[in-house]
Hints:
InterPro entries: Mrp/NBP35_ATP-bd, NUBPL-like, P-loop_NTPase, YlxH/NBP35. GO terms for molecular function: 4 iron, 4 sulfur cluster binding; ATP binding; ATP hydrolysis activity; ATP-dependent FeS chaperone activity; metal ion binding. Belongs to the Mrp/NBP35 ATP-binding proteins family. Keywords: ATP-binding, Hydrolase, Iron, Iron-sulfur, Metal-binding, Nucleotide-binding. The protein contains 10 helices and 12 strands. The chain has helices at 20-33, 50-53, 83-86, 97-109, 129-137, 151-166, 197-204, 217-224, 229-232, 237-258, and strands at residues 5-12, 38-42, 64-65, 69-70, 73-75, 78-82, 116-122, 142-147, 171-176, 181-182, 189-190, 209-212. The protein has an 8-stranded mixed β-sheet with strand order 5-6-2-7-1-8-9-12, with helices on both faces. It has a two-stranded antiparallel sheet with strand order 3-4. The chain has a two-stranded antiparallel ribbon with strand order 10-11. Magnesium ion binds next to α1.
Amino acid sequence: MIEGVKHIVAVASGKGGVGKSTVTVNLALAMAAEGYRVGILDADIYGPSQAQMLGVAEGTRPQAAGENRFKPLEAHGLQAMSMAFMVDTREPMVWRGPMVAGAFQQLLTQTAWDDLDVLFIDMPPGTGDIQLTLAQKVPVNGAVIVTTPQDIALLDARKGIEMFRKVNVPVLGVVENMSLHICSNCGHGEPIFGEGGGERIAEEYETRVLGRLPLTMAIREQVDSGRPTVVAEPDGDVTATFRSMARQIAEQVQGQQTEGPSISFSD
Length: 267
Ligand SMILES: Nc1ncnc2c1ncn2[C@@H]1O[C@H](COP(=O)(O)OP(=O)(O)O)[C@@H](O)[C@H]1O
Ligand SMILES: [Mg+2]
Ligand SMILES: [Zn+2]
């Protein structure tokens, strides 16, 4: 158990650029809109992007909380902590597995999380040793896999699901991102990256598609400007999809608690 955190949900993807961080921040905001106390831990050392997505000014540093802990930053009602708050991300740095695990552990345990119902972790992309170590070291209640409907991304998503299974972390579902391109001129939709991929994977691994998100100009502009869609368009369709996914996640992790832990972690 991490002090101040009830449930931990890892958001992962087999490869980068599929929208893992975009989904993480919007899911977290949607969960907060559903009435939960929510935090984000940006563990993507290769490209920490939560600071920008949450509109936190560059160079903002967390304040100390007592002797050896830090207060999370607050943004749009979320508590947030990121590798980017602690190290200069412009400095090129070669991360080796043990360094990452150490830095990550520190971020997780030395942050003074304030009574969170759910902490979302924006995981580093990929399914290598680093990701496996993180999945093992942290008491994760469940994982959400983000993929595009493209074959190559789905192949990586499979590896992601298998990795979490290996360490007995339940996969809560698959988010199919960039499912349909919606033209900002006329609103017509086109399945640029193909169709039905998330569904096939969900069936194969006996998990579910939590939701499908379109590829739109608005989603990108909003998240890149620090006001993600769930904040910018609280009554829009995309927000409704994120809130539905948030409710499914909440149900699943809370269900786990009443049934007692199905998984045990050792240090
Ligand atoms: N559904 C979407 N529609 C439009 N742009 C998107 C969508 N999802 C992600 N993006 C954009 O794609 C880029 C990569 O997304 P990001 O969330 O940073 O991916 P990852 O964390 O997987 O590397 C970002 O510029 C983001 O704004
Ligand atoms: Mg990212
Ligand atoms: Zn058009």
